[in-house]
Design a protein that fits this description.
- The chain is α/β, with parallel strands linked by helices.
- It has 22 helices and 21 strands.
- A hairpin with a 5-residue loop joins strand 9 and strand 10.
């Protein structure tokens, strides 16, 4: 008998099944061997399993124990295989025997009822045995199992559990056994029973039927979704009404935005206030973001769900793998952690040019593809880029040609193709003393949020959950039928500013968002004119 316990491996944010086979040969000397391309953490798992089993009252079996992780040509990483290995060893040693069923046996001499115990890995001929009721314990064949073992038999949390449960559902499995701290996260997926366990003894009791453990309650995702409470209200920011208008447009259409202005004009404050006007996540988006955070082990064990739009603010010293993702074992970077949320880059020119250039393709494709010799991994990256920058390293611009040359030199750190991918270029001028000395009376977050929600509702009714910023040229051609005056204005802007084909679509998307905010059914010349004004940093390349 070779027990087969199923677990999973995590590649990116997706899970793939791993079958753990245990072969026990009592005729050989005591030895435990793990094969199947394990990394150091997996090879060390046998020591954790031995101690956890011994301290829980289940000594390792005598003889040679061979543990195979299939498929053998895919590298296995992490401590998540501790628990399934222990379960497999306990099944092979006869400690776990979950299938206890009442059967009716008929062989031509009349029927007689008998209570038999069947191994979960033995095969019974249907013509000989008819099952009358279900097993008392949980059958390991009908579950995915994962967890890290402590030396005293406790079970520690792991990452990637939500992907594991999604895999179990796709395979038609009945249940999953996960660490109790991961149970809230696992219960986000519907249709699979989630058993959260805290010790190896609980697992044995659950499978043998001696422990009556109820599945974790299903999580109601929609009820947990919430708005982001921004630390700053836009009403606290004096002046900058034109930038606030641009922020409304950016939030309504999920457009990338960069703010350019002297130091101390409120750029960072507005970026921090922006989450307060963003619409809440949908249940589907919430689960997508949760999968990314689960793959990094960044979930709150109590909630088990990312319920508000994420906001990531990496420092300008961050490396390319930290921003985009990567590493020897590819992991999600900041742009994937900002999926369906905001990525705020303060002092944009201070970031390494190499780091910024690696963001160009994900900004267009909304996914990050990381290729390694052993495979390729994709992470989602549908984020809204918000950037702030000073005109010069000193923070302001000197008058005359000297200041202009200094600003041009500083802005040259940013490539034209990168700026081309940022929809809104907004100037945040210095706030005069008259504005600073007055009581703040500008537009507040509540008003701006209402404008954003109305615009999002219009776009939702028109094109579904696809934001305006992601409409392709074909969709824009169908949605936007420009009149003659709007078409001529757009043609003039393209010719005189030397805009690229990408900028052409950017302007049309921005104009469509402006029309949604205004409540107009069609895009007019004034919407095109305002959209063109937001291409401040465009230049001939």
């Amino acid at each position: 008998m070779v027990p087969k316990i199923r677990s999973f491996l995590l590649q990116g944010i997706d899970a793939h099944v791993v079958e753990i086979e245990i072969d026990l040969d009592e005729t050989q000397l005591q030895k435990e061997v793990v094969v199947g391309l394990p990394d150091a953490a997996v090879r060390e798992s046998i020591e954790r399993v031995r101690s956890a089993m011994g301290n829980s009252g289940y000594p390792m079996p005598c003889g040679r124990t061979l543990i195979n992780l299939a498929p053998a040509d895919v590298r296995k990483e992490g401590p998540m295989y501790d628990l399934p290995i222990a379960v497999g060893v306990l099944v092979a040693n006869g400690v776990i025997h979950p299938v206890r069923q009442q059967v009716a046996i008929g062989a031509g001499t009349g029927s007689r009822s008998s209570s038999v115990q069947s191994s979960p890995f033995s095969e019974l001929r249907e013509s000989e045995i008819t099952f009358e009721d279900e097993s008392i314990g949980l059958d390991p064949r009908r579950a995915l199992i994962a967890g890290e073992l402590a030396l005293d038999g406790r079970i520690r949390p792991i990452r990637g559990v939500i992907a594991m449960v999604s895999l179990a559902k796709s395979m038609g499995l009945d249940a999953v056994i996960v660490p109790s701290e991961n149970a809230a996260e696992a219960s986000v997926v519907e249709g699979v029973r989630v058993f959260g366990v805290s010790s190896l003894t609980q697992v044995v009791g659950l499978m043998n039927g001696s422990l009556d453990l109820e599945p974790h309650p299903q999580t109601d995702v929609a009820s947990l979704l919430q708005e982001i409470n921004a630390p700053i209200d836009f009403a606290e920011i004096k002046g900058q009404e034109s930038v606030k208008r641009a922020m409304v447009i950016a939030a309504a259409g999920q457009h990338n935005i960069v703010m350019l202005g002297p130091a101390g004009t409120g750029k960072t404050m507005m970026a921090k206030a922006l989450p307060g006007i963003m619409p809440p996540l949908t249940p589907t988006q919430s689960v997508e973001v949760t999968r990314v955070y689960s793959s990094r082990g960044l979930l709150d064990s109590e909630r088990g769900l990312i319920s508000s739009r994420p906001v990531r603010t990496p420092h300008h010293t961050a490396s390319a793998p930290a921003i985009v993702g990567g590493g020897a074992v590819p992991q999600a970077g900041e742009i994937s952690l900002a999926h369906h949320g905001i990525l705020f880059l303060d002092e944009l020119p201070e970031f390494s040019r190499n780091v910024l250039e690696t963001m160009r393709q994900p900004m267009e494709d909304h996914v990050v593809t990381i290729a390694r010799s052993h495979g390729t991994v994709q992470f989602p990256a549908s984020f809204m880029l918000v950037a702030a920058m000073n005109p010069t390293p000193k923070g302001d611009v000197a008058p005359g040609e000297v200041g202009q040359r200094e600003m041009d030199r500083y802005l040259s750190k940013l490539s034209g193709p990168l700026l081309d991918r940022i929809d809104l270029h907004v100037e945040a001028p210095a706030v005069p003393w008259g504005e600073l000395s007055k009581k703040a009376t500008g537009t507040d977050t509540k008003t701006m949020r209402e404008m954003v929600l109305r615009a999002r509702e219009r776009s939702l009714n028109r094109q579904g959950e696809i934001p305006n910023s992601r409409l392709n040229g074909k969709a824009l051609d169908v949605i936007m039928v420009l009149d003659e005056s709007a078409r001529m204005l757009l043609e003039q802007a393209m010719t005189q500013l030397g805009l690229s084909a990408r900028a052409y679509d950017k302007i049309r998307r921005i104009a469509l968002t402006i029309a949604d905010i205004s409540g107009c059914e069609s895009v007019k010349a004034e919407h095109i004119g305002e959209a063109v004004q937001y291409r401040l940093l465009d230049r001939k390349l």
